[in-house]
Design goal:
By secondary structure, this protein is of the alpha/beta class. The protein has 2 domains: about 140 residues, no CATH class; about 210 residues, Spore Coat Polysaccharide Biosynthesis Protein SpsA, Chain A, CATH 3.90.550. The chain is built from 15 helices and 8 strands. It has an 8-stranded mixed beta sheet with strand order 3-2-1-4-7-6-8-5, with helices on both faces. Helix 3 links the parallel strand 2 and strand 3. The protein is globular, with a radius of gyration of 22 Å.
Length: about 425
């Protein structure tokens, strides 16, 4: 019995070590590739007409700020149409958005809830609203848009064959507390390093859910066919299977608040964790089947990406692998396994370096142990039966703190200017 138990422990330890090693090797490849990424644009191309779509569920507190940031963009006001989907709202979102100068489309459907359903409803039911636009841009309701965002998106879509552009999605309130500081490190890596690395390897940037731009004919054809809790990643994989790659424009920047409280973060993380597993189950066989039919290597890259864990899970797995190495091989193997931690460290540091983070922002690494401890507790809760349940909107900081003031953009990042006037219009509809 003792020999059997020892063999089982050894098998588990070797499995953890091999898995961690493969993940580390893949992450090193992606990270290295990101350093060679060069965005393609045609700055002299004519400016595209764009319809900006903002999904909003009870965003009355912050929707005006988002609309105002779009109006302040360095882009012709006549080339932008701002549309807000007031989705199952019970507050003053619709009235506030209309007063701020957006077209408002109210949707009431208590069964089909979530951003994916709202997008699909708008794209299919209100084609006339965006039919004359060259592109449709999706911006979250808690977002600040860089002044140059639309110029860079337009110049990137002008590249022949480019149908979709994903901008960089950064953390607005990065210095709020330890949680948002770590979120900045993670999103610099996930939203930049992975996007750039996958573009170099050929599979495309993927969709990040905010700061996305599509050619109008593409969304007219597809609608928004993804309705899960990670509808952006799901749609991105569907497009990849169909042979459509997503370009990445690192200079097209949007900023959004990250959760500041454990309750906010837990709601968000439960949604991501649960739906990521379903994506693996559904899309792994689809991607493999498509690979054998088309021989496109980008599909295998997507399969590997689905099975490589998030940064925090990888660090935890590496620590387990280190413990396993100590069990099966003593201190020498343990020391060798510590090298596995270099991959996620290089990945995270590359995100900070490539996004040119300030010296003060690098202090965020001091908060990583706190975040890992919180994630371990969350995984324990998940194993104990905690589930995301039905879709829940992540509470905003202003709602938790009941503050009248808004979080302002860092002055060093974005300079304010006067509002660009937009004709006030309002449309209503439901299904």
């Amino acid at each position: 019995m003792h020999a059997l138990l020892t063999s089982a422990i050894d098998l588990f330890a070797w499995t953890a070590l091999v898995y961690a090693g493969l993940c580390a090797a893949y992450l090193l490849i992606i990270t290295t590739a990101a350093w060679f990424y060069k965005p393609k644009m045609q700055p002299g191309a004519p400016a595209l007409r764009m319809t900006v779509v903002i999904p909003a569920h009870n965003e009355g507190i912050g929707i005006v700020r988002t609309i105002s940031s779009i109006q302040r963009a360095d882009y012709s006001a006549t080339a932008l149409t701002i549309c807000v989907i007031a989705d199952n709202c019970t507050d003053h979102t619709a009235a506030s958005a209309a007063t701020a100068g957006a077209m408002v489309f109210e949707r009431f459907d208590p069964v089909n809830i979530g951003k994916g359903h709202a997008f699909d409803w708008f794209l299919r039911q209100h084609f006339a609203t965006y039919a004359s636009s060259d592109a449709v841009v999706f911006i979250d309701a808690d977002t600040i848009v860089e002044r140059s965002f639309f110029k860079i998106v337009s110049a990137t879509l002008a590249i022949p064959g480019t149908q979709i552009v994903q901008g960089f999605y950064g953390v607005l309130n990065a210095r709020e507390n330890w949680r948002t500081r770590v979120a900045m490190v993670a999103l610099n890596a996930f939203n930049h390093v992975l996007a750039a690395g996958h573009c170099v390897l050929g599979s495309g940037a993927g969709l990040r859910g905010n700061g996305m731009a599509f050619r109008t004919d593409l969304v007219r054809r597809y609608g928004w066919p993804a309705h899960s809790g990670v509808e952006d990643a799901e749609f991105g994989l569907r497009l990849l299977v169909d042979g459509i790659r997503i370009s990445y424009a690192p200079g097209a920047i949007v900023w959004a608040d990250m959760p500041v409280k454990s309750r906010q973060a837990q709601i968000q993380r439960l949604r991501w964790e649960g739906n990521r597993g379903r994506l693996r189950t559904v899309f792994t066989p689809r991607l493999i089947d498509s690979f054998f039919k088309t021989r496109r290597s980008s599909l295998l890259d997507a399969v590997l990406a689905l099975h490589v864990p998030p940064l925090s899970k990888m660090v935890i797995a590496d620590m387990l692998a280190c413990g396993g190495a100590f069990i099966i091989g003593g201190s020498g193997a343990c020391a060798a396994s510590l090298l596995l931690l270099l991959a996620p460290l290089w990945y995270a540091c590359s995100g900070m370096l490539l996004r040119r983070s300030s010296a003060r922002d690098w202090l965020a690494f001091l908060s990583v142990p706190l975040f890992l401890f919180w994630k371990i507790l969350l995984y324990v809760k998940i194993l104990a039966g905690l589930r995301p349940g039905k879709w829940q909107r992540t509470p905003r900081k202003s709602e938790l703190h009941d503050r009248g003031s808004e979080v302002q953009r860092p002055a060093s990042k974005i300079a304010d200017s006067g509002k660009i006037p937009v004709t006030e219009k309002r449309a209503a509809g439901n299904i």
